Amino acid sequence: MTLQEQIIGVWSLISYQSKDKERNIIYPLGKDATGFLMYHPEGYMSAQLMRQKRPAYVSGDSHKGTKDEMAKAALGYMSYAGKYEVIEETNTLPHHMEVSMNPTWLGQQQPRIASIEGDILRIRNGLNPNQKLIWKRIP
Fold first, then answer.
1. Coil, helix or strand for 40?
2. Dihedral angle sign, alpha carbons of residues 8, 17, 28, 60
3. 2 has which bridge partners?
4. Which of 78, 67, 69 is nearest to 103 (CA)?
5. Which of 122, 114, 26, 36 is nearest to 79 (CA)?
6. Is the Cβ–Cβ distance between 84 and 105 less than 8 Å?
7. Beta-ladder partners of 92
8. What one-character-per-residue DSSP string does 109-125 give?
């Protein structure tokens, strides 16, 4: 089965880790981060990751948090979506950032190096190989 065939579906985050300058393992969104990664057969994908226990806005309105509340919420969330490609020869999945929580990523193409064993998907960020994500397929 090709990577293109295997990647289609919805995946739940198991682990998101990176390394700091001293090469120590760190968890940018905490050890208990949660998220979903979706690959659609028509060539679109979406990634949503978040830190657990982010505080709700006191106002209760999703558009009217204080600047501090919104900054804390943004620091604990990562998301983007857009077209993706599959390069079978290198197990590479270029992600095209068409929408993103981080405006710096808009319009970028970022490679992801993937391997799948059973219902586990391992992804390395092709621009920063210290970033490793492990996902489990949702049946």
1. coil
2. positive
3. none
4. 78
5. 36
6. no
7. 87, 113
8. EEEEEEEEETTEEEEEE
Structure tokens that stand for 11 in this block: 């995946």
Structure tokens at 126: 């092709």
85-139 pLDDT, tens per residue? Answer: 999 999 999 999 999 999 999 999 999 999 999 999 999 999 999 999 999 999 9
Q: What pLDDT, on the 0 to 100 scale, is given for residue 55?
A: 87
Q: Which helix (H) or strand (E) holds 75?
A: helix 67-75
Residues forming beta bridges with residue 113, ordered by sequence position: 92, 124
User: How many residues in the chain?
Assistant: 139
Question: What is d(CA 34, CA 14) in angstroms, rounded to the nearest whole number?
Answer: 7
| The two structure tokens encoding residue 86 | 């599959």
Structure tokens at 75: 């620091």
**For 87, which DSSP code?**
B
Nearest Cα neighbor of 49 from 6, 86, 81, 85 is 81
